Amino acid sequence: MPKLTVHDAKGKKVGTYNLEPTDFAPRINKQLLHDAVVMYQANQRQGTHKTKNRHEVSASTRKLYRQKGTGNARAGDRKSGIRRGGGHMKQILPRDYSYSLPRKALQLATRMALAAKVRDDAIVLIDKLEFAEPKTREMAAIIKTLGCDGQSVLVTLGEDNANVYKSARNIASVSISPAGDLNALTVLKARRLLMTTAALDALKAKAAESVNRKAAAAAAE
Fold it and tell me: Is the pTM of this model over 0.90?
């Protein structure tokens, strides 16, 4: 079974952790991951785009020139959609792009994303991550010591920690999330996952619970 090295805040090896992709998902379905990522990105769109039609454009309603006798094509006022500065003939209106996939599909996509990170050896483990007060410099030093600087990093904790969050929020390309709030988009968007052992324990337990529940449902049938 593959083993991950567990480091402390100074980069020293303090143990190992047995982990393999199947601990999260038996296989990785790229189509499901794609569908989940597209859904999360669509739900982030504001949808506030809008253009004006000819009735909303502020301009003179005077006919530009007489209907006949000029040799030109017929023309109405300056607000016509074929005129520069005129109204938009196929008006764009605000819309809601959000939609949702089934909850179980999204949960499975998150586990598959984690399995993909395990397969790609993109998870860096630290025994614990805590500060007595917010210290951005110390957080940046830890990220650099563990070889995660210069790339996008997702810091994952077992539970919310205000001091760690405040220490990491101003570092470029670094995001932070408790294990319970992870989704397929946040996991796949980061190049490396800097994760505490407590967070990994919680994620593995949640994945095992899902497998056991599915097996129990299949046995009941």
Answer: no
